[in-house]
Please model this.
Amino acid sequence: MHRPAPLSRVNTVALVLFLAAPGCASWPRAYGAPPCCTPAKLAAPADEVWWHLFQVTAIAPLTDSGRTLRRAMGFPVASFNLHDDAVTDSAFFTNRDIAAMSPEAVRWGPTRPDDVAVPPFTVTKLKDEGKTAGFFVKDARGVAYLFKLDPVDAPELLSGAEAVSSKLLYALGYHVPSYEAGAFAMEDFTAAPDAVMKGAHGRVAPLTPEALQALLAPRMREGRVRVGQSKILGGEILGPARFKRFRDCAEMRALKLACAWINHIDTKDHNTLLVWDGQRTVGYLIDFGTTLGADAGRAGPQRPCAGWTYIVDLKELSLETVTLGLHEPPCPVQPTFDASVGRFTSQVDPRKWKPYAPNLAFKAMTEEDAEWITARLARLSRAQIEAAVSAAQYSRPNDAAYLVETLLARRDAVVAPYVEDK
Model:
């Protein structure tokens, strides 16, 4: 692995100036420089997904051995920005007063009235990254959106999960884009003359009306097709963040328990986005199609062991090898509720919860970080959670009711160990 070169005198001065630059307005001067703010425009090169997963799974356990030893000895690295049981505004976080948020404010989250897409839509390009089908559009006002489609056999699954999870994370204080569920008629969509798609052998090809209809027609329900709509973020898109860079920020460490709550297992670097707004770099959490009971990669419900083991879990593989295959992963029986909700149950152990690949910020979480986020989780009311779930616009009331009760039960399960420890 490439090791960073020692800081030169010039680089040292630049680092000092960076830390001393004005960052988050609410950061108390008594705490010193705001280490988790980003007043500068950050470089955000994206690694290939396979290389990122290899790094966090195989390389990080070796390079982070010092941190592991400190944790084992009882004095883990403390977070930079947790003071007096509070975290101030940072690159990824705004310290919203949860108790003061109305259910309506939670329902809409970051979405403003003019963020909702207005038909008709001009399709400019099919989505060619990731496994979820979708396309880029411009609405009647010329505003750009990404529309994602649910699996043919699981209507409402991904679009519902993205809407609900984004609202809940927003209420907790995290920066997320606007995600809304919507349903439109076939005639609301027209391919632009220069619209493109990925054709045979990965080559760019024109998007024909026939190809667009073939994508939409299997998903039509009662004359309308449902989409998850996300307004394209304003500002200069820099690229994904690295959780490793922010792993000593309390809000990024404690995000682990927020993700355990909604079973957000796809927490790799690539599901973040850094955006330069002209004054600072703002960090967003993005892509929530693999939360609650949905798995965008599987185009269906989450796997039974989602949240309980990594996809490549070296510990479980070792135990299976030592026991000659007799060891079984600690996955409880988790049935699928239905096609639109997927596999999402009240069974969760926050101390053992795992995303599908190791997250270096999550591994750095301390008890103090956990107590901070669980105190915020505990402030969310039933009415606020119901409002977040209503954003999914589920066609069956039983789906919404099940999600509300399951979210409440999981929230209590996530919070309880850290309340009991006090």
